[in-house]
């Protein structure tokens, strides 16, 4: 089919023809950076549906792990689990990195057992290994499940048990900004979309140690500019910032939920979780600080501790809290319970629910 320029045919019509052709649309979208893909999707509603439905088809992307994606996402919702790690980043970039697993963070206990039974009894996975993950909010254990088939080869899924909410583990313990992406049963979230997908950079979120070097090098080979210091001018990073998971700075993308049974917990619980971003400066000579300078200027990892100059990183603070008047558990950013921003966020959600259901009593709202 010839789509060469024809002066009698408007350019928009030619674009429509290309986007409506499945094969041509795939070729175009697979080669576009995510920024250009979103720009193209904004040209009209029809284009948006065709482009985003193709680029962000979560069910198609999960097929390589040899499982029923609809049933799996239903189980994610019921257990409150979140897909994190490199898969979420690959999904947004529109790439596939060979040898990567599917990481799922889930609260330890009954919710962990629920997903364990689903993978083993429903999907036919076998537990390949169990490892301790250390004393942390994502501590407990990491269970690796594997399944082999002729069509997909060996697929591996890792269930990482959390001692608290999975979102708290992601917020508090991620080591660099480009991994701050996660997928719930119905949405995908990117906390630092501009730095990750526009600037294609990643900055530290914790004091860096020698253990982080192989991980950071991995993202360097994937064309990210790896910084071990936050730029001096900030480049959009504030010294202290109060944020929510579902705020306007987060890139939130709603996924197709056809066939999925929604969980009882409403989505605003996750999106109302708050956290603080603090801009910190330390000397490499301080205890626990090992990396300074530009990674390109240091070739021997063991020599990092010998460097002694100021370096900076973003520290994210998030703690869980519960209250007798709240049905669900949230994350808060500081020691002050019920800060003004949190109250305002819950008030908006409560009003929306009350309006949609014509309920006048706040007691009838699912939050309480």
Low-pLDDT stretches are 1-10, 284-309, 357-368
What's the overall average pLDDT, rounded? 78
Largest sheet: spatial strand order: 1-2-5-4-3
Continuous helix count: 13
Q: Give the helix proportion (percent range).
A: 25-40%
- Number of E-type strands: 15
Spell out the helices and strands N to C. Answer: HHHHHHEHEHEEEHEEHEHEEEHEEEEH
Number of individual domains: 2
Distance between the termini: 59 Å
Backbone CA Rg:
22 Å
Question: What does this protein look like?
Answer:
It comes from Gnomoniopsis smithogilvyi. The protein has helices at residues 11-20, 22-31, 34-41, 45-55, 58-62, 69-79, 86-93, 110-122, 166-173, 193-198, 213-220, 268-271, 340-357; strands at residues 82-84, 102-107, 126-132, 141-149, 153-162, 181-183, 187-190, 201-202, 225-226, 240-244, 251-254, 274-283, 310-317, 319-321, 330-332. It has 368 residues and is of the alpha+beta class. It has two domains: 11-55, no CATH class; 59-274. A five-stranded mixed sheet has the order 1-2-5-4-3. It has a three-stranded antiparallel sheet with strand order 6-7-11, with no helix packed on it. A three-stranded antiparallel sheet has the order 10-12-13. Strand 3 (126-132) and strand 4 (141-149) form a beta hairpin. The radius of gyration is 22 Å and the shape is globular. The chain starts with 10 loop residues before the first helix and ends in an 11-residue tail after the last helix. The model is unreliable at 1-10, 284-309 and 357-368 (pLDDT under 50).
């Amino acid at each position: 089919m010839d789509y060469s320029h024809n002066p009698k045919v408007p350019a928009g019509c030619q674009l429509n023809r290309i986007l409506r052709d499945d094969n041509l649309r795939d070729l175009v979208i697979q080669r576009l950076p995510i920024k250009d893909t979103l720009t193209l999707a904004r040209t009209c509603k029809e284009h948006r549906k065709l482009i985003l439905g193709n680029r962000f088809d979560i069910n198609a992307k999960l097929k390589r792990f040899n499982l029923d994606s609809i049933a799996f996402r239903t189980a994610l919702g019921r257990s409150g689990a979140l897909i994190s790690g490199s898969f979420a980043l690959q999904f947004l970039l529109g790439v596939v990195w060979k040898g990567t697993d599917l990481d799922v963070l889930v609260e330890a206990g009954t919710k962990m057992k629920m997903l364990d039974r689903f993978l083993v009894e429903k999907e036919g996975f076998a537990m390949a290994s169990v490892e301790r993950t250390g004393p942390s909010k994502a501590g407990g254990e990491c269970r690796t499940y594997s399944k082999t088939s002729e069509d997909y080869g060996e697929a591996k899924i890792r269930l990482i048990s959390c001692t608290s909410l999975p979102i708290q583990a992601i917020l508090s313990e991620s080591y660099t900004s480009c991994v701050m992406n996660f997928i719930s049963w119905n949405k995908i979230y990117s906390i630092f979309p501009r730095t990750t997908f526009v600037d294609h950079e990643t900055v530290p979120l914790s004091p860096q140690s020698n253990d982080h070097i192989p991980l950071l090098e991995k993202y360097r080979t994937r064309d990210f500019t790896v910084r071990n210091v936050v730029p001096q001018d900030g480049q959009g990073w504030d010294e202290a910032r109060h944020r929510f998971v579902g705020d306007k700075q987060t890139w939130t993308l709603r996924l197709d939920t056809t066939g999925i049974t929604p969980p009882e917990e409403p989505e605003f619980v996750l999106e109302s979780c708050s956290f603080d971003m603090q801009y910190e400066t330390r000397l490499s000579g301080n205890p626990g600080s090992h990396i300074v300078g530009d990674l390109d200027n240091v070739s021997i990892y063991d020599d990092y501790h010998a460097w002694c100059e100021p370096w900076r990183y973003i520290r994210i603070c998030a703690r869980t809290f519960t209250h007798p008047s709240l049905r669900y558990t949230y994350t808060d950013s500081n020691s002050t319970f019920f800060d003004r921003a949190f109250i305002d966020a819950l008030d908006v959600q409560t009003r929306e629910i009350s309006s949609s259901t014509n309920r006048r009593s706040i007691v009838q709202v699912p939050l309480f």
